[in-house]
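Notes from hallway chat w/ T.B., transcribed later so I don't forget. T.B. wanted the structure written out for a chain they're using in a teaching module, and asked if we could keep both sequence and structure tokens in one place. Agreed to drop them here.
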Amino acid sequence: MSGRSSLKAAAVALGLWGSVSFGVLAFASSGAHAETIRESLALAYANNPTLNAARAQLRGVDENVPQALSAWRPTVSAAASAGRLANGVDSSVNYRNNASMSLTISQTIFRGFRTINSTRQAEAVVRAQRESLMSTEQDTLLDAATAYVDVIRDTALVSLRRSDLAFLQEQVRAARDRFDVGEGTRTDVSQSEARSSEARASLNTAMANLNTSRAIYQQVVGTEARNLSADTSISRYVPKSLDEALNLSESHQPLIRQAQHLVDAAVFNVKTIEGELLPTVTVDGSISRSWNPSETVDYSDNAQIFGNVSIPLYQGGAVYSRVRQAKEELGQTRLQLDVALDQVRANVISAWGIYQAAEASIVAAQAAVQAQQLALEGVVEEQRVGQRTTLDVLDAQRELVNQQSNLVIAQRNRIVGGYQLVASIGRLDAGSLGLSVARYEPKQHYKAVRDKWIGLRTPDGR
């Protein structure tokens, strides 16, 4: 192949590489509708099993509130018995049938404020679990966004590696042609073939990475990665400054709010256990009927109602120990709140630094790509006039591919860093992102079960 043919092949490859920018790359460039990242996030919000499991866990925690409220309600029990009695005096034995039925009702009037405090404790735990669900939602959407961008990145890298292989195959053919006419050496052919084989291996690795990213995408989102759009802008959700990000995280980060609600729950737990040292007042009533209670009575009825007061005096020290234990647990939750505040702050600062560094890396990588493209063009032209060797062209080619890969990776890191930053401040949820999806409302189930007195079926019919 002539030097001008080599230059033409390089120009074709450069044109293809120039089009493989992460910002414009997309699957299936046909007219089919491309799935946007917002649509993928909406699918993950609706389908992700981890997120659905967290919702089920919250529904289970909701039931702690009606269980605590049950202490306000009466307990009713019924009993029945039947049998045959035998009474013997001397040699005479008398037999008679006997049966009884009773109904007992007990109503607690006062439990040392344990019902009030245990209900408030259960409500605080529910609020904490809602924040845990919100945190899981953010983690799921972050995983979905990362998986989406990773598929785009790996597709771009596969395209780059294919273009690299095509260019190097052209170099192999050109080196062989020159060798056949006596203008080249066997070394030029061997060097070109070695780089071509290396490029094929890199392509295989890139394709394997793409398959892995597709599998992770399907695991998180629930559908196969087909025809994804490369429009993945997150910049409008990113805070303008680090101070703004830190301020937003203090009020929006669910990890902080969860820790605050757990402190409230621990406070009410202490009060609930202390209530065991106070009197308990109940009203108990019962009615009963017995048939053949004795040889001379056919049946008898009985009804009674009593007010009972139980005053605990000493329980072996167990209650006092549990109060002290609860106070220590309260201190632990307060320390965990401080830990959460520090952790969130560190996460925000780290995410901000990663995002800013990725933006700077993109600028540097873009400049490097432009410079290396010009360098490769120059080397190819110089090779045509005999001033450069085949190895010079191969080295320039490798450097350009490396710079293109660095640019793709930097663009991926910037987008993922943006989503990480938004998640760190607590705004990566379906509502804040405005996703077009039916929102899961945690309070709906809570309201349905809070005041249920009876029933085995869940609100969804199970």
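Follow-up for T.B.: The chain is about 65% helix and 15% strand. Might be a good example for the class.
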